[in-house]
Write a structure and sequence with these properties.
Distance between the termini: 24 Å
Helix content: 25-40%
CATH architecture: 3-Layer(aba) Sandwich
Number of strands: 12
Number of helices: 7
Order of helices and strands: EHEEHEHEHEEEHHEEHEE
C-alpha cells in the first residue's frame, strides 16, 4: 500500500470539509445534511475529505437491512481527494474511517453509498473496500438545469420546490449503483447482493467519467 499507510484521518470542521469538496469533487457540490467530516492528511496537509450524514431518503433506505433503527445507519455522501495522494488512498481512508465510526459510534450498524455511473465512476473504490453491490439502475435522479448548466439531483429539486421544472429537464445518461457495507456482521440485507460482473453485463461501467467495459 506504500505511502497510503502514512495518511492520517481527523475529524474536521464542516466548513473546511465543504470548501475542499466544492473545489475537488466532480460535482462541485456538497450534500447539505452531512454531519461527520473526515480530513485525510499526508505530510501535514489536507489532501482528501469524506463526508458522512443521514441518508437523503432515510425512510426508504432504512428498509434495506432487517430491523434497522432510525439512528443505526449512515451514508457516505461525498468523497473527494486531490492528486497528491498516492495509489490506494481511497480504500485506505474508507477503511480507517469505518474503524473510527465503529469505535466512536458503535450504534451505527451499516453504511450506504452511491456511485454516479453517469458522470464519475461505477464504484471501484467501494468494491475494493468490501462494500456489497445491491442495485444498479438507469438513473433519472440527475438532470441538467437548462438555465445554469448545473446537474441537479431529484432531492435537491424537491427541497427547492422545483419538482415540476425538474421533470422537464434533460436527464444525465448513465446508471446509479448502490453499495452497502455491513459493520455489524450479524445484520441481514433485505435485498439481494449482486455480482460485480453485473456492471459489465448491463453496460454500467465507468471510470473517471469515461465509459468502460470491465472485461477490457
Amino acid at each position: 500500500m506504500g505511502r497510503a499507510k502514512e495518511i492520517q484521518l481527523k475529524v474536521i470542521p464542516s466548513k473546511i470539509a465543504s470548501d475542499f469538496v466544492k473545489k475537488h469533487h466532480y460535482s462541485g457540490k456538497v450534500v447539505p445534511n452531512s454531519t461527520l467530516h473526515f480530513g485525510c492528511f499526508l505530510d501535514g496537509k489536507l489532501h482528501g475529505v469524506m463526508q458522512y450524514g443521514p441518508s437523503m431518503n432515510k425512510k426508504g433506505t432504512i428498509k434495506l437491512v432487517h430491523g434497522t433503527k432510525w439512528n443505526e445507519f449512515i451514508e457516505l455522501n461525498r468523497m473527494a481527494f486531490d492528486d497528491y495522494l498516492p495509489k490506494y488512498s481511497e480504500s485506505r481512508c474508507i477503511g480507517v474511517s469505518i474503524n473510527m465510526i465503529k469505535k466512536n459510534a458503535p450504534h451505527i450498524k451499516w453504511i450506504i453509498s452511491f456511485s454516479d455511473g453517469g458522470q464519475c465512476g461505477d464504484g471501484t473504490i467501494y468494491r475494493a473496500s468490501n462494500f456489497k453491490l445491491t442495485d444498479i439502475r438507469h438513473s433519472k435522479s440527475l438532470r441538467i438545469n437548462p438555465n445554469t448548466g448545473e446537474t441537479w439531483h431529484a432531492m435537491q429539486a424537491h427541497h427547492l420546490k422545483k419538482d415540476n421544472d425538474f421533470r422537464t429537464w434533460k436527464p444525465v445518461d448513465g446508471y446509479q449503483l448502490r453499495y452497502i457495507y455491513l459493520i455489524d456482521k450479524k445484520a441481514r440485507l433485505t435485498v439481494p447482493i449482486m455480482p460485480f460482473s453485473k456492471i459489465d453485463e448491463i453496460g454500467a461501467g465507468m471510470y473517471k467519467g469515461e465509459k468502460r467495459n470491465m472485461r477490457e
